[in-house]
Structure formats: structure tokens, C-alpha cells
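The instructor's notes for this session suggest beginning with a concrete chain rather than abstract definitions. Hand out the sequence below and ask the class to guess, before any prediction is shown, which regions might be ordered.
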Amino acid sequence: MSLRRLLCLFPAFVLTTAACALDYPHVTAEPQKTGWPLTAEERAYVVDKPEHDRRPGRESNKHLPQFWPVVPSAGHWGGTSWLDTHAKLVDYVQTNKGPIDVLLVGDSITQQWGSPLDKGVLNDAWKKHFANYKTINIGIGGDKAQNVLWRLDHGGVEGLEPKVVIVMIGNNNMFFVPETGVEAVARGVQMCVANVREKFPKAEVIAAQIVPCQAPGVPFYENIKKTNAALAALKLDSDPKIHVIDLWGNFANADGNIKKALFTPDNIHLSLEGYAVYAERLKPLLDKLVGGKGLGGDVVIPAKKTGAAAPVPASPFASSPSSQTASSAFSATPNEAMLQPTPKTADGKSLVYPYSPYNEGELDPQLTGWPLTDAERAWVTKSEYERKPGHEVQKHLPEMWFVTPTAGHWKPKGGGEGNDWLDHHATIIEKAKAAGANIDIALLGDSITQGWGGGWDGAPFNAAWQKHFGDTKTVNLGIGGDRMEHILWRLDHGALDGVSPKIIILMIGVNNSPLVKANGVPAAAAAHGIKLCVENLRLRCPKSQILLVKILPAFNPSKDVGKEVININAALDTLKLNSDPQVQLLDLASDFTHADGTLKSELYSDKYLHPGAAGYEVFASKLKPVVGTLLGK
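After discussion, reveal the predicted structure:
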């Protein structure tokens, strides 16, 4: 994946392709790559909302602190003050654009080298060692890694041609380490360096690790030390144009205590003596990288050399299958928000789903029940791709796909407009209504469920079902190809209205598994989707027992999609849905795989996915004792 996206997120606002930047691991509601100046709407967004309301995750009511340091976010000091400060620096950069020797990027420790925000005079330490270097300082006190990313992408360095960029950032991220962890901060620093490398591929970059502060045992001190270790592990200097300097030994004694003379009384910011030490440490490396006399003296600016630019390093997240989710987001471990009960709407009739535009009717008028209005029917005749969460705002939000109700879509066999899937859903609703009261079992799921028979296609119940459950009153609501988001939509649109089965057998998720691999949907989000299906059933059929069958082993369990089935099931275990006494879980993995984990292909009609007659017999025999207990037999 290129470091530049082919399209920016808000193309109507983009003035030049230079406004685009890195592919970040998560996209928030904040306009992140649209350049400078801001539109009135963008300005209102970053001024009216405090920074905590714009953090990654807030746009979908999720707590995603692991993304905070690595996703651009405008700072906020109240009112327009932070944005006005950034604007002053942008103006300064524009009046001084062109070749420079050194660009300083960071927070207050960088700002205090001397900044146009102050008197515009570089401090004595810088002037002593680097007087002839044409230097621009864009440090802003209080900035965090995410604020630097935002400024880099919004005019902060546009038009500059630095020989060397010095980046020191991360100190202010320490306030949030209890939530983000130190690894996320290190990745934020890494992302700032990657951003600079992308914008200035010919420049050398000095990445300065965070200087110590306060004292051993103090959380700030300890977390800075851990962050620097995490940053060192990222090996940024494997890129020959990135030079990492560790200042710890220059600012701390052998016993770990800081050298107080090098700090101001707050034990955080550097004194003039501290800047002298910093400058002396920088000098040999900076002199080498600038390469001779700087541009700040009475010199002639050399002509630009021709030739290919140095290769640009990959984004820290470029290898991820999605630019919206990264690292721990791809694990099978649900976050804390997923473990909590899903809230309900004020009238108690529906769940409040993680993707807030759905609940607000901005994506699809989906919470209106059955039958559909003309407008709703017209909406669901669109291809499913056009209705995925995020598509309506030109964002790729795969982590929201499985947890947001979405109608399926089958093109009419005869061609033309329409949605045969909707017709199958309607047929099933009529079947459930016709069965009336006292339904023993309702089957809900995809083609594996449909394969039991008795569904929308008119097929009779298969031999295994008739053998083991022929004496039960059963309704099959399975539709081939369904995913968990389809089940959610169907439940919100009449699938079980007016009926209360004694048992609902749900198995869903195998059709979601390929999207985990191909589109970067977190396995934990898939498990969360199944949880929402269970909660939806509990809401609509509160007297029913729910028997949740974990996804059957499929494909090759040792790799790719087959492995994602295992990951989703593992995440499902973490959610502990059977802590609800009306929810039972059934795991058939050992019945459909050998001891070495390979599939018992003889149980599948196609050798890898759909059960054959033998497979349904095994399935039914495992269901029977559980169903018998639930029915009181």
C-alpha cells in the first residue's frame, strides 16, 4: 500500500494532492487530511468539540485508547487558541518556505529552543552551536503525538525543504498512558517520523527519545523510560535516513535521578544549561547531516541536485489489511466496551448499535419494523457495498460492518432492479406467523442452517432433522449467505415478531470469516456481532432459550479464513455469553476436526464448508441432548 492514499477522505475540500498524508490505523469523524486552510465546517468541528470528544472511538461510542497517539487530532485549549497558535506557525512557514537547514518539530521542549510564537529568537544554546543554520521551529507547548500529526497534515510544514528534521514528541502523551499504554505512544512517535519522512523524502530525520523528568518511581518518569524502550524496539534507524538519539544518560545520573541543574524547577522543562547539553549532543550529528556551511549565513543556496529521491519508508501500519484498524485491533480479544451489556433505545424496543449514524437514521432508516416503507425498500435495493457503514461518508470502517444491521442483497435471477434476499426474508416471516404459537424450535442462521430444510425455498427437513427432531414444531429462518449483520437487520424487521419459540438455535459467522482476512475486520468485532445477535434475540423473545452454536470448522483451520473461524470462536468465549442462564453454547469443533486440527472432510458435502448427510447427522446427535434438556424431555 502506498503511503499516500489515492483519494483523500474529503475530496471536496482538497486543494492539492499534497494535502493527503499517511494511511492512519483508524478514521474518526474529524477531517484529518484536507490540508489548510480549514473549511468553515472543519473549523467548527475542531473548535466546538474538546479534544476528548474527537478521540478515535468516540465517533462510534467505543473506547479505543490504543489509537489515540497514532491518529491525527487537533489540539484544544478552549475556544480557538490552539488553532490560532497553529495558524500563526503556518503563516510563518509560508513566509519562509523554500530550502532550510533544520526543521524542529515537537512540544514545549522543542518550542523553547526559540520560536516565532515567543520572541522569535533562538535561545543561546542554539545560537552558539548552530547560528549559521537556517532553522524553523514549529513546536507547540502541550502538544502530543496526535497533535503533531494533525499539524503536519494541515499546512504546518507545507512549502519547506529542510535538510534535517528533528522530532521530539511524546512527553505530554504520558498523561494518558494509563489508558493508551506505552507501546501506543511509541507508535505515535513512529508515525510522526513516518509522516516527516513521507513529506520530505530527501531529508535526514533525527528522532530524539523523550528526556527523563521528575524522579524514579514517579509514573511520568517510569512511563517515559518504558516508552523509550518501546521506541528503541521499533528500530526506526533501520532506515538509513533516520537517526535515533538517546538523551537519557545526558540528563540522568547513574542512580537514575535527573540532573536537576539541567531542568527548570518543575523538573520537566529544560534549563538553559539543559539546552546547552542537548545542543552539544546534537552538534556532531547535525553538522554531519547538514553537510558544511548552513543557509543562515551569507551563503549562496546551491542548485538542487537531480536524481531519484531516497525511498520513503513504509507507514508503521502499511502492512495491515486495513488502514482503519491496526495491531491489537486485529486480535481475537474483545475490548472492555464489548464486554458490557449493549444499551437499548429509550422505548426499550431496539438495541443501540456501536455505529451511531445507524441509530440516528443517517445511514439507513432501519429501526422501523416490518413491513418496509417505500423509501426503505428503495434503499435496500441498492447493492450492499453501497450501504456498508462508512460508505455514506467515504470512509472505510470495516470494524463497524458486522455490528451494524444491514439488509442482504441478491440480484433478481431475471435481471433488473430488486432484491430477492428481501423476498426470502418476507417468506420466512410468513412461515413464522403461520406456525403461530407454541413453536418448539426456531432455526436462525446462514446456508448451514437453511440446509436443515423447512425454510424459504420449500425444501423438506433433511433426514437428520426428521430423525432426531421430527416430533418438534420447528420453523427454519435460515438464509444462505447471511452474515451476522443480516441477522441483526432481520430481527429488527419482523423476523420473529409475534412469536416466542421455546428454543432459538443460532449459528452464524462463517460468511463473516473471509472478511476478517480480506478487509481487516477485527476478529473481536465478529464476536461482538454474534453477541449483538444474542442480545437482540433476548430483547425480542425474552422467554426463549437461546442455543448458540459456535461456527463450525471450515476451510483450512491452520491458515487464512479457516484460522479466522478459530479466532472468532476464541473471542466469543471471552464474551462469556452463557453467563446468562437463558443462553447455552455448543462447541462442535472436536466433532468436525481430527486430533491434528484438520477437517473431517467426510462430514462435508463440499469437503470444506457445508455439512453433508453424515455431517448433519453428527450435528443433530450433538444438538439432541441439549435440546431435550431445554424442552424438558
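Then share the key points. Confidence is low (pLDDT under 50) at residues 1-20, 297-331. The two ends are 58 Å apart (CA to CA).
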